[in-house]
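Weekly modeling sync, notes
Attendees: S.R. (lead), two postdocs, one rotation student

Agenda item 3: backlog of single-chain predictions. S.R. asked that every request posted to the team notebook include the full sequence so nobody has to chase files. The rotation student volunteered to paste the first one in as an example of the format we agreed on. Action items at the bottom.

Example entry:
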Amino acid sequence: MSGAAESSRLAGAGPFSHFERLVAWRYLRSRRKETVISVIALISFIGIMLGVATLIVVMAVMNGFRAELLNRILGINGHLVVQAMDRPLEDYEPITDRINALDGIRYAIPLVEGQVFASGRIGAGTGALVRGIRAEDLEKISLVSGNIQQGDMVGFVAGEGVAVGTRMADSLGLAVGDIITLIAPEGDITPFGSTPRRKSYPISAIFEVGMSEYDASIIFMPLAEAQLFFNSEGIAQSIEIYVDNPDAVDALRPRVEEAAQRPVYISDWRQRNQTFFSALEVERNVMFMILTLIVLVAALNIISGLIMLVKDKGRDIAILRTMGATSGAVMRIFLMTGSAIGLAGTVAGVILGVVICLNVESIRQFFSWISGTTIFNPELYFLSKLPAKMDFSETLSVILMALVLSFLATLFPAWRASKLDPVEALRYE
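Predicted structure, as returned to the notebook:
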């Protein structure tokens, strides 16, 4: 009677009942004679944890890398650039005023730009980009005016000095008050042709925007002085426009053309940086696909571990079946066993990934100190710090992907367990 009652109890156990959870938990627990199976389960857990953590960290770093580059590129360069077509921009001031009056425009800045050779007290000199800009406009560019490391804007406002980046100042051995010499290839016109123009300026401010390319190559000069230096008196080469919403530049383009009241050529930040950001997007997608293979390999370990567990527990499964457990109950037991490994590995991976993302710069500095080398060299990667920006939707997609792969990995071993014939399993016992 007791056997019949037990059989009735097992047969009537609902999906994922206490009985099924109890058996699944016992199969997860390590026993001396099941060391190999436990090791495979542990490897599967570690593999999923590392795969999920790696995916989260890499995606966060690439998101942070893109966001930081975008902020710095668009913080220095305008979202829209207006250039003359039929004649020089000698009327840049009224055009700038009309553009500034448009809704959605943060500010418009007339510029004069030119390539120069810069030299200081030490070193052989370096190539640089001089950007002639009005003092009140440079103060609007917070990425520069808000990151003055040495000096101030007083000399620049007075038109008696220039502002350079920290990396250029270091490479040329310059400090605030020192003289930087600039040589422009197109200078004075003489009977013997054009001769290079050479002029020296005191350094009034040293800034650091955090992007090595800009800190090492850009020199800001008062607009009037730049116009004289590049033989462009009373002329601006372009007008850079900063907008409230960089993604809405297409809607602003016709209004800017109308405000210019003359033929102009307008380019936006997406056109000027299309190749760069397209390459980042492709790299990000490829990295996601490659790192997903880590989770897939860990999921395959779950398959091998469960198959070995089914083979080892064949006698137990047969006894459960003869006592009344249904094939569905056996399948659910092994589904829970494998899914528990995937769930635990995913949760641990998320925790590990979040912790690394929150401390990624400290970790970089630690490993740089241990190895004695510069990891994430700003000369190669543009940024002076390693950024990480977690995206909720991406993190959720990584979690769901890991859970789905882990669940799919348990289906075949669980199905094999449910189809085990009790008679065959007990024949030689």
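Discussion: group reviewed the output briefly. The CA atoms of residues 201 and 388 lie 39 Å apart.
Action items: rotation student to repeat for the remaining queue; S.R. to check formatting next week.
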